[in-house]
Design goal:
alpha/beta; eight-stranded mixed beta sheet; three-stranded antiparallel beta sheet; homodimer
Chain lengths: 459, 459
């Protein structure tokens, strides 16, 4: 069992062992009860100390992946099989083709596991557990912890979004923010405009609530304004959902010109604009948010993409009236967010650790994005638009037989994004969401090279 | 500023100072920027060490209640006013009459702050932050953490509820469990039966989703079976929500006879039964759950009432088919629960701390319940039914002028439960939900005595 531990990596060795063991277990499909190689053996082959290996195994016991059996060392836990099934389900949420889960998620929607930094977060968690007793027990306040909302408002001010304290509501991730907006502000049978391609979960949410979707094509500059105007004239929709900056899946941001036109159209046709800006902190460049240009815009943000998806903290900024309606649905449907998690986030925002974290992430993403664009160019892929920030590039291979692209991906252990998820109606297309943080992995490089080699001579 | 610190109480002194200061700030209505008495002064008057007072003030700074101003010591923070408004909103969710919030919540729905025990929970939080890296960052699995679900199933087995691993889904508190059930299994325009009196949040949820409610009166033995049968015959509702044990607000549990009749009626009329059992762990007596008698029943549980409302962990047990539908809506609307919080709860269930905690809570509640029933008897209140477990007694004063009861309550700083919240249609009545954990407080004793003195001679 060779674990490929990188002692130079910023990720602690024990965490690397945990991840490598998890990957090894999944790839080898061991049955519950199956015995692992001995700790001594794993340590010897990988030049590790036995205590590190034991610690890693103990963590996997705590996670329910392994069990410790007296005399037999560590064995696969009875629940590990379910963990595996679920992992596939979760990772396959956007690609249901069932690829084995230790492959490279080139089309994945988040930062890779190896980018996550534990120290500051663990410190904040311990800090809150020592000092904020209310955080351990109580519900949060309906709008969210005041100290946290204060920190959020400071960051928004730097984006020229000026809101009062009563205009910001914390949510359980951006998912709950969108859910509350759909439930509180739209009725089944009404219609809204969504971008195509766009965010799959939003499409699911709208379908769940019986709201019909009108598709506006997303260009590299933002929604296609001519189509938008025609839709507004013909169908009189009540809302417009826009992922303004570092758009999922194209990575492109709204230009100032398009932003102005969109807002004017929304005003003329009395349409509620919902701005999804969950990738905001992954870029620090110029560009005004819609909510900075028009205070009638409902603005959605999140910390899941940068800090942790586990804390489940996002937020909405809107008028007092809208926030009051959203807060009511939030309280009825969930009694609010986890106060503990809100306290942890407030601590990281207040002590500056979050700011430094996203600075590191931006720097790293900028480097990776350049490298990824170069690779795509070398492989002669068509790039939709060159993003200046965020996680994604939207691109397609010029191979004549598109099935071959997926075959090559499988060959190199690369999981591509879904061919249908980003289309509101579920239509298939050949564009791929490329996660720039994964594009420099050797598997991705090999995959891109293979698609270059196999391209027809015409290109 | 006299803080009344009790050095014999199990609550740490610093926590007591935090609570007393919060209470003092609220009651004195200080404006943002107003200066607190000096640390030295507070320490001297209350015979406390200055370091304890400073630590307590620092915690209030972290909570956004105080600010630390150089040269001026501690002052009221700019956000404190909002914290106050929100606290009133939250506590007033069931009583919007706006009582000042350092009064006794005699009608409150949870255990008092002073009952909460921090050590085990803080230990588990630190443990998870040290060992479970995935818990710090990742989404949980769609059904919930396998290790946690395994522990939940063990506890359910002791209630004779036998479910497979794929039949349990974690949720963000029982609130999300009920929300998912309403959204995934019922359509707007359909009707369901609810108990009257019953759980206010359920009524709000059903209204939000456009599901109409048919009321079955709750007797001390359970729902009135004759009325239930008539409703099923006349209206053909699709669902029946029952809070089977230690019912909110009456405190009474379903008898075995009524349970059998309810299940038979549900079977005959093809009605989905949803059993809300969030108070289960506050009693360990006999009595079979509906879900133990019929595996078609959908069962809802929670850890908010015993361990912490901040972790936001509840669960649903149902058939594979129903769980799959609920999980889908859960993922679409919230991307699942906080994996970190799920890991913390799993740790407390595994190491036995949770089991010991609820044993202590039950013992204490049993004593308090006896004392509360005695007080009600002395004050000649009418008791709806004598509960054998849980948090509540449902009772009403025999005072002829009922407004006088509320006046007496205000006089002694006692906040009563809402007169209308427990009725599905919002009708007013004279019954009170008495939280037994608060009934022995001197303010409650004085209030009950006053209602006894003022009763008419006829009684």
């Amino acid at each position: 069992m060779e674990l490929r531990i990188d002692r130079q990596a910023p990720v602690p060795v024990i965490q690397q062992i945990v991840e490598a063991l998890t990957c090894w277990l999944r790839c080898n499909g061991l049955e519950p009860g199956a015995r692992l190689p001995s700790v001594r053996q794993i340590a010897r082959i990988n030049l590790l100390s036995q205590s590190c290996v034991v610690e890693a195994c103990e963590r996997l016991v705590a996670q329910g992946v392994l069990a410790s059996r007296h005399g037999a060392g560590f064995v696969v836990a009875a629940t590990a099989a379910i963990a595996h099934t679920e992992a596939v389900w979760l990772e396959g949420a956007e690609d249901k083709e069932g690829a084995p889960s230790c492959e490279l998620q080139l089309g994945g929607g988040g930062l890779p596991e190896s980018w996550r930094e534990t120290d500051d977060l663990a410190y904040a968690i311990r800090q809150v557990s020592r000092t904020d007793m209310a955080g351990l027990f109580n519900y949060s306040t309906p709008l969210g912890l005041p100290a946290l909302r204060g920190q959020m408002l400071k960051r928004l001010k730097r984006l020229d979004i000026n809101a009062e304290d009563s205009q910001i509501l914390t949510t359980s991730g951006a998912s709950q923010a969108l859910d509350l907006i759909v439930r509180a502000l739209f009725k089944p049978g009404e219609s809204v405009v969504v971008e195509s391609p766009g965010y799959p979960m939003l499409f699911d949410l709208l379908r769940l609530h019986g709201v019909s979707m009108l598709e506006v094509p997303r260009t590299p500059q933002g929604p296609d304004v001519a189509v938008l105007e025609a839709l507004l004239l013909e169908h009189r929709p009540r809302g417009l959902f826009i992922n303004s900056f570092h758009h999922n899946p194209t990575g492109c941001s709204l230009t100032p010109g398009v932003a102005q036109q969109v807002l004017q159209l929304a005003k003329d046709h009395d349409v509620l604009v919902i701005e999804d800006d969950v990738y905001a902190d992954l870029h620090n460049g110029p560009g005004k948010r819609l909510a900075a240009l028009d205070n009638g815009v409902i603005y959605v943000g999140s910390y899941s993409k940068t800090l942790s998806s586990s804390l489940r903290v996002g937020f909405v900024v809107a008028s007092n009236e809208v926030i009051a309606r959203l807060a009511e649905v939030k309280m009825i449907s969930s009694m609010g967010a986890s106060r503990f998690c809100e306290s942890v986030l407030a601590c990281l925002l207040a002590n500056g650790a979050y700011r430094k974290l996203v600075q590191r992430q931006r720097q790293r993403l900028n480097n990776d994005r350049q490298a990824a664009l170069q690779q795509l160019e070398d492989a002669e892929w068509e790039v939709f638009g060159k993003p200046t920030g965020g996680l994604f590039i939207w691109a397609r291979s010029r191979m004549s037989d598109y099935a071959q692209v997926r075959i090559q991906a499988r060959r190199f252990g690369v999981v591509l994004s879904s061919a249908t998820a980003f289309d509101p109606a579920g239509a298939a297309n050949e564009w791929q969401r490329i996660n720039v943080a994964c594009a420099c992995d050797p598997r991705a490089r090999a995959f891109f090279q293979a698609t270059a080699r196999d391209r027809p001579q015409a290109f």
